[in-house]
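Hey,
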Amino acid sequence: MIGYSDSGLAGDCDDWKSTSGAFFFLGQSPVSWQSQKQRVVALSSCEAEYIAAATAACQGIWLLRLLTVLVNARVIAPLLYIDNMSALVLAKNPVLHDRSKHIDVRFHFLRDSISSGVIETDYIKTGDQLADLLTKPLPRERLEELRVRSGIINVVSAQHD
């Protein structure tokens, strides 16, 4: 299982809250996706991405447990791709930095999940981030590219073929 986590920093012009997005694939097939406004105002892109990754980790762990029950076997930990190096370093570093003291404790669930091996994380370039589709308005070309790469079928075009 592979997941993609992203955020759109301060996308809501009224309350300046960011949007979290997560996309999970089993093989080449999308099996779960989520787009949700964050409950707190992030003070940086690192914090917004960290919050989005923590939310995605919860989803990935739930999917892992569901899949384990369905196949009645041990399933390897999902790999979660994050396109923000600062958030990735913060997630993998067990030392609480002065710069992250303000981040709500519940989001450090991500760090605990990584250290216990229940989820893995890795860096992905922003251009390859599929969860971008769920977090912000995109130019038509980028939207189409991500739609195709995500395996989402354009139903309107498919009906006319």
